[in-house]
Design a protein that fits this description.
Cytochrome Bc1 Complex, Chain D, domain 2; about 240 residues; mainly alpha
C-alpha cells in the first residue's frame, strides 16, 4: 500500500510513466519474481542477523538492489538508480562508487525523515540497517560513472569555484573536502564527480533552503547564487 501512495507521487517525474509501468509489472508478476529469486533466498537466510556483529554482504546487497523484495515491500532500486547505480536521468542520482558509509548514512536519514524526500523516505522505510549496509557495500564496488559538463560558458566559473572557492564571499574550495578530482574523502565527504548536474544543483538548493540539513553544506550553499550553483554543478558532472 505504501508503494501505491509512492506511485502517485511519481507522476510528476519525467520518466514517471516508464516507472509506473515497471511498478505495474512488479505488482502483477510479484509471484513470478519471487520464484525467480528463489535460488538467492537460501543464501540470504543462511546468514541470519547474528546479534551484535553482522557481516556486510555486497552480493546480498546486489540482489536486493536489482530485484527488491516484494514480500517486504522493498522496491528494486535499479528501477530509478539504474544498472550498477548508473542512473539514466538527472532526477535520480547516480550511486555507483559512492562511499559506503555515506550511502548508508543517507538511507538512514531518509528512513528517519531527517533528509526529507517523499520518494526516498518511502523507499528507505522498508530497509533494515543490514539491508542499507549490504546495498551500500555493493554500490561502492561499482565503477564511477563518467559525465560531461554541458555548458561551455560557465565551465571556467565552475572550475574556479570548485578549485579555489570564492574568497570575496568566504566560500571555501569544494576540492578541500570533496578532493580535487571529485572522488570525495571517505567516509565524511561524498563523491561528486560524474554526478548529474541537475541532481547536484537540486541538492545545493536544498542545502541553501535548509530543507536538507548539514551544517557545513548549509553554510556554504547559503553564500552561492543560482548562477554559481549551476556553474559548479555542471563543472562537477565532468569531473573525474
Ligand atoms: C522511484 C524512484 C526511486 C527508487 C525506486 C529509489 N530511489 Fe533512491 N532516490 C530517488 C530520488 C528522486 C532521489 C533524490 C532525493 C533527493 O533529492 O533528496 C534518490 C536519492 C537516493 C540516495 C541519496 C544519494 C546521494 O547522493 O545522497 C540514495 C543513497 C538512494 N536514493 C538509494 C536508494 C536505494 C538503496 C533504493 C532501493 C531500496 C532506492 N534509492 C530506490 C529515487 C528513487
Ligand atoms: C568543509 C567541507 C566541505 C566543503 C568545503 C564542501 N562540502 Fe559539499 N559536502 C560536505 C559534506 C560533509 C557533505 C555530506 C552532507 C550530508 O551528509 O548530507 C557534502 C555534500 C555535498 C553535496 C551532496 C552530494 C550528494 O550526493 O547528495 C553536494 C552537491 C556538495 N556537497 C557540493 C559542494 C560544493 C559545490 C562545494 C563548494 C562550493 C562543497 N560541496 C564544499 C562537505 C563539504
Amino acid at each position: 500500500m505504501r508503494q501505491t501512495s509512492q506511485i502517485s507521487k511519481l507522476t510528476s517525474l519525467r520518466a514517471g510513466f516508464a516507472v509506473l509501468s515497471i511498478f505495474a509489472l512488479i505488482g502483477v508478476s510479484g509471484l513470478a519474481i519471487a520464484a525467480d529469486a528463489a535460488p538467492a533466498a537460501p543464501a540470504a537466510e543462511a546468514k541470519p542477523a547474528a546479534p551484535g556483529k553482522t557481516k556486510v554482504d555486497p552480493v546480498v546487497g546486489e540482489t536486493l538492489y536489482s530485484n527488491g523484495d516484494p514480500t517486504r515491500g522493498v522496491v528494486a532500486c535499479i528501477t530509478c538508480h539504474g544498472p550498477k547505480g548508473q542512473s539514466a536521468i538527472g532526477t535520480w542520482p547516480k550511486l555507483s562508487a559512492q562511499h559506503a558509509a555515506y550511502t548508508s548514512r543517507q538511507l538512514k536519514s531518509f528512513k528517519e525523515g531527517v533528509r526529507a524526500n517523499a520518494i526516498m523516505m518511502g523507499m528507505a522505510a522498508a530497509l533494515t540497517d543490514q539491508d542499507m549496509q549490504n546495498i551500500s557495500a555493493y554500490l561502492a564496488q561499482q565503477q564511477p560513472s563518467q559525465g560531461m559538463a554541458q555548458n561551455k560558458e560557465t565551465i571556467e566559473l565552475g572550475q574556479s569555484i570548485y578549485r579555489g572557492g570564492i574568497a570575496a564571499k568566504g566560500v571555501p574550495a569544494c576540492a578541500a573536502c570533496h578532493s580535487p578530482n571529485g572522488a570525495g574523502i571517505p567516509a565524511q565527504y561524498p563523491l561528486l564527480g560524474g554526478q548529474w548536474a541537475d541532481y547536484s544543483n537540486s541538492q545545493l538548493m536544498s542545502f541553501r533552503e535548509g530543507t536538507r540539513k548539514n551544517i557545513q553544506m548549509n553554510t556554504i550553499a547559503a553564500k552561492l547564487s543560482d548562477a554559481e550553483m549551476k556553474a559548479v554543478a555542471d563543472y562537477m558532472a565532468g569531473l573525474h
